[in-house]
Specification:
alpha/beta, Rossmann fold, 10 helices, globular
Length: 334
């Protein structure tokens, strides 16, 4: 696995937007200032500041593909961070020149729809990357959460720490499904988009891997369908262990008193607890019936959520499901 050079203070971070466009650019200066205060220069790709040609993409396929290749090929940039996820990465998987990525490895940070690019980089360019805070996450109003997320990311991509990957105390405890320990190369990301490319040349073989999955606004029946499809395809059985994120449902969380007392009470008294409990029971049933001895834990704080723990894709880890931790067995950068 090719590891990118560590990001050093004073380096330039290129911001690209290979997926969805920002609904508003008013907060971009705040995020850029945050990066500059941390000691880095920031360069914005042109597609970020032009009007989107569609409702959900920053630019056409050729433009987005070229901006990815240029970000890696140019000596002016030391790391690549994406604006946000959303949709659209799948459109350019067939056109990217993966030799450029392989020959010019750089720290690459993103999650959600960006999972598709990270899996393809891992498979086609053999490059490690990082699921961690995107530019949109640097708008976070909770300063403590923002600093926790940043400190975790920078420890891995700049200082080369072989970190103990676990939930921050403020985010709540993760929960074990099947106790046990195992080792393997870390691979995964957003469950929905991961499932889109299973069986294609753009995804590494799951054999011997430690898989992690996260998602957002997934109902229990959707989770069951997605995971059962991976069981049928043999993906989950090949893996040494599995970690699941917190699977937040923003449709539920955004219900407020202004939408009526009944809706508000349903959220706080019934629906939220029901969905969380059903998510857990869905996962528990899946493992009990199909993978009773495979180490696994849930409620890991990553990606979609206030606390975004950095996950080094392609790096070997030791998973301890009873302690709900992953220990990096090697640094993620050179």
């Amino acid at each position: 696995m090719v590891k990118p050079p560590r990001l050093r203070k004073g380096g330039t971070i290129r911001i690209i937007a290979p997926s969805s466009a920002a609904t508003s650019t008013s907060s971009l200066p705040k995020a850029v200032r945050f990066l500059e205060k941390q000691g880095f220069k920031v360069s914005l790709a042109p597609s970020m500041i032009r009007e989107s040609p569609t409702r959900y993409l920053t630019a056409g396929d050729a433009t987005r593909k070229n901006e990815i290749e240029n970000a890696f090929k140019s000596d002016k940039y030391d790391a690549v961070m994406v604006l946000q996820g959303g949709a659209g990465s799948i459109d350019i998987l067939n056109s990217i020149d993966y030799d450029i990525i392989k020959d010019h490895p750089k720290v690459f940070i993103g999650y959600s729809d960006i999972t598709l690019l990270q899996l393809a980089f891992m498979r086609m360019a053999h490059m490690a990357s990082f699921q961690g805070p995107m530019l949109i996450d640097l708008f976070e109003e909770d300063e403590a959460a923002l600093q926790t997320n940043w400190n975790n990311l920078i420890g891995i991509i700049s200082r080369g720490e072989e970190a103990m990957i676990k939930n921050p105390l403020e985010s709540g405890w993760a929960k074990s499904i099947n106790d046990g320990t195992t080792k393997g190369q870390l691979m995964g990301g957003n469950l929905t988009v991961f499932s889109l490319i299973v069986g294609t040349k753009y995804i590494p073989d799951a054999r011997g891997k430690v898989l992690f999955f996260e998602d957002v606004n997934v109902e229990p029946w959707m989770l069951d369908n997605l995971l059962t499809s991976l069981v049928i395809k043999g993906v989950l059985k090949k893996a040494n262990g599995i970690v699941f994120g917190q699977l937040p449902n923003y449709g539920i969380e955004n219900i407020s008193e202004s939408q009526g007392v009944t809706s508000y009470l349903m959220k706080h008294l019934f629906i939220e607890d029901y969905i969380n409990a059903t998510m857990h029971s869905t996962l528990q049933d899946l493992f009990s019936n199909k993978m009773p001895k495979k180490p696994a834990f849930i409620e890991f704080a990553c990606c979609h959520g206030k606390y975004i723990t950095t996950i080094p894709m392609g790096i070997r880890v030791k998973l301890d499901a009873s302690q709900c931790t992953m220990e990096m067995l090697e640094p993620g950068v050179e």
